[in-house]
Amino acid sequence: MTLTHTHAHSHVAPNSAAGRLLAALGVTLVFVAVEALGGWRANSLALLTDAAHNLTDVLALALGWFALRLTARPAHRGQTYGYHRAGILAALANSVTLLVVVAGIFYEAYRRLSYPPAVEEHVLIVVALLAFCVNAGIAWLLMSGSRRDLNLRSIFVHLVSDAVSTLGAVVAGVGIALTGLRILDPLASFLIGGLIVWNAVQIMREAIHILLQGTPRDVDLPAMTADLLSVAGVRGVHDLHVWSLTQEVRVLSAHVLTDDMPVSAGACIQNDLRAVLRDKYGIGHATLQLECQACDPGCNLTAVSDDQ
Question: Alpha carbon of 75 to those of 7, 11, 72, 81: distances in Å?
Answer without folding.
Answer: 12, 8, 9, 6
